[in-house]
Design brief:
Helix content is 49%, strand content 17%. The protein is of the alpha/beta class and 259 residues long. It is globular and about 60 Å long. Belongs to the enoyl-CoA hydratase/isomerase family.
């Protein structure tokens, strides 16, 4: 995978995607185009069982959108860029593989939205988070107002969005925005450790679990239970289910085929 702003590698069934626009890795149209393409490829790559998304260097995961690009756009242009960004975040959120954000520094604005689109989030103890858009006379446009409140609740979401103030890794963990806080030099290794565990799980069951959680969170409880039931049936019909139950009875470690 040869990209202008992404570094992509596959290591032990885990894809590691690094956004590489130092020093703060801002998102622009080309980055979104490359992210869309690489996630499309990874969804089709049977070697890949888990994905890690991170930023280059220690200063930033992604410190927002590229303001220089945005400043030169009219309403038609910004609406087009906004449509693309929202589409990419949704694509990442609905990837068939579990996605871990390894947040190595600043996660601001669009970078914060990118992290929220991932399934799991591990961050450096020096990471900082904010939705600073209100200070620029705009609001988050990549799903931040929606995904944030589903994690922290509406009241806290409004506090973070209205004031736009920066907060640290431990506040993010307290609010359940991140799953784990680790020392600066352990962010990627911690993400790899989690990814390695996920690669040992039955991939279809993980995929169905993700569909059930994501789709169910956007509807009422009865519809959510119907979605869960359908996903349960899909997982139960797999060869991996037979292998998992057989291995349990035989008291051995299961070997999953992804079928």
């Amino acid at each position: 995978m040869n990209d202008e702003f992404l570094i992509s590698e596959i290591e032990d069934n885990t894809a590691i995607i690094t956004i590489n626009r130092p020093p703060v890795n801002p998102l622009n149209s080309q980055v979104f185009k490359e992210l869309s393409a690489v996630f499309r490829e990874l969804d089709e790559d049977d070697r890949v069982k888990a994905i890690i998304l991170t930023g280059s260097g220690e200063k930033a995961f992604v410190a927002g959108a590229d303001i220089n690009e945005m400043a030169g756009l009219d309403l038609v242009g910004i609406n087009k860029m906004n449509k693309v960004s929202r589409s990419v975040y949704t694509q990442i959120e609905n990837s068939t593989k579990p996605v871990i954000a390894a947040i190595n520094g600043l996660a601001l604005g669009g970078g914060f939205e990118l992290a929220l689109a991932c399934d799991l989030r591990i961050c450096s103890e020096k990471a900082k988070f904010a939705f600073p858009e209100v200070g620029l006379g705009i609001i988050p446009g990549g799903g931040g107002t929606q995904r944030l409140q589903k994690i922290v609740g509406q009241g806290i979401a409004k506090e973070l969005l209205y004031f736009g103030e920066m907060f640290d890794a431990f506040r993010a963990q307290e609010l359940h925005i991140v799953n784990k806080v680790v020392p600066v030099n352990e962010v990627l290794s911690a993400a790899k450790e989690w990814a390695a565990k996920l690669t040992q799980k039955p991939p279809i069951a993980l995929q169905m679990m993700k569909v059930a959680v994501n789709a169910g969170s956007n509807t009422d409880i009865e519809t959510g239970l119907t979605i869960e039931s359908s996903c349960f049936g899909n997982a139960f019909s797999t060869e991996d289910r037979k292998e998992g139950l057989t291995a349990f009875v035989e008291k051995r470690k299961p070997v999953y085929s992804g079928r």
